[in-house]
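Notes on consecutive records. When two proteins share a document, each keeps its own sequence and its own token line. Never mix them. Below: protein one.
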Amino acid sequence: MKKTLFIFSCLIALHCSSQKNEDPKLIGKWEGMLKDLETTNIMGKIVLEFTKDGKFIQYVGEGKMQNSLESTYIIKDHKIIAIDNATKEKDETDYLIKNDTLTITYQGIENKYVKLK
């Protein structure tokens, strides 16, 4: 019985970890320009950082005017699902990585980011 329970527990743990859909190409920092959702005008520089442990950090602006927003993320069906740490709200975006360019489509607006080395 204990042996069966142990095997069952291992299978559950493996199943849960295998459902975490990861994209190793996404890990790292990506630099681009922030666009206004209504006008699509460029508002400034933005750096997106995706970590191996599921953190998603957005650095908006530069120098003393830079702000950072931290959340978590998961990957599912070629989408990035970001979860705000404070409000637990979820935002879902389509993404595509080709070479060193990350293309994110959010609310119909396409933004391109270049991977920082």
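Protein two starts on the next line and is unrelated to protein one.
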Amino acid sequence: MKVNGTHYRSLWWDAEKAALQIIDQRWLPHDFRVQQVDTLEDYAEAIVEMRVRGAPLIGATAAYGMALAARLDPSTAHLDKAWAFLDKTRPTAINLRWALNRCRTHLLALPEDQRAEAALRLAHEIADEDVEINRSIGLNGLEIIRKIADGKTNGEPVRLLTHCNAGWLATVDWGTATSPIYQAHDAGIPIHVWVDETRPRNQGALTSWELGSHGVPHTYITDNAGGHLMQHGLVDMVIVGTDRTTRRGDVCNKIGTYLKALAARANNVPFYVALPSPTIDWTVTDGVSEIPIEERSAREVTHIQGVNDAGEIVQVQVTPRGTPGGNPAFDVTPNHLVTGLITERGVCAATPEGLDGLFPEQARIAERA
């Protein structure tokens, strides 16, 4: 996507410097900063500190981390150590382990003197695949938005509600939940996006920054406003991303997603999840009991970051001193609350049969495991 007229991916490989470049998302939407990632420690910190964030982007970052590990020392022992080091950075998004496993399996089958070159080539491949997956999700989601638009009169826009940032900043490009939005906007379909602020990190501000850069009409709202808008017929469709989706279609996403799904069900609003296939965890069935939920720092709840009147990026405390903060980063939406899963292969029901129908090869592997 574009920033001030220049196309960017969320990460890219600088061949001259032989190093990964990332957009340091801690400073957005107020300041656009690019950081070079040089060491395995840098990779781990980038993931933990959410300089890069979003399940697909975390996976792509980890793949480049394995490429660095193979360049430093291609031995099996070192690759195993790098795998374990990066795997512990964040527990919930399955793309992290998916990418690490894919890299390790591929590399260990090769002679040591071939691993460094192969690792970098695979990291590029994973990044490029993510772009194409998300573009295809957008095309499949576009058809849903188009059908809603066909029922509108007098040029009334299709009104969508998002939660968190499942945009291009959370992927290598296009985004998951935003990809259909961009496709619809570019196709000339009138749309308007209600953007949840998504406390505690206010990642909705990233979505607003993205949509504004692309010229998509939108309004930034508090998390608790969504149900009210649905009650008054002001939401035609909810579309969110996912950090891990179970084999039966339970969806783990940013905290607060479950409440949006409940409100959508109560008000007969379609609730769709944009789902890239690497985010499916074929080893897990019951999302509520089996998916580990990351508990992040209480400071994310007790403090908030913004720009003061002097134009400085600052943090301020919003709670009384000494008040403890709880910060579960994700929740799970049971599959019966999900209208459909929008994948790169099409749209399916949030059921084992729906997922198996689109990804029969993965279903067969899971059955044998």
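For the record: The chain has two domains: 2-129, 138-368.
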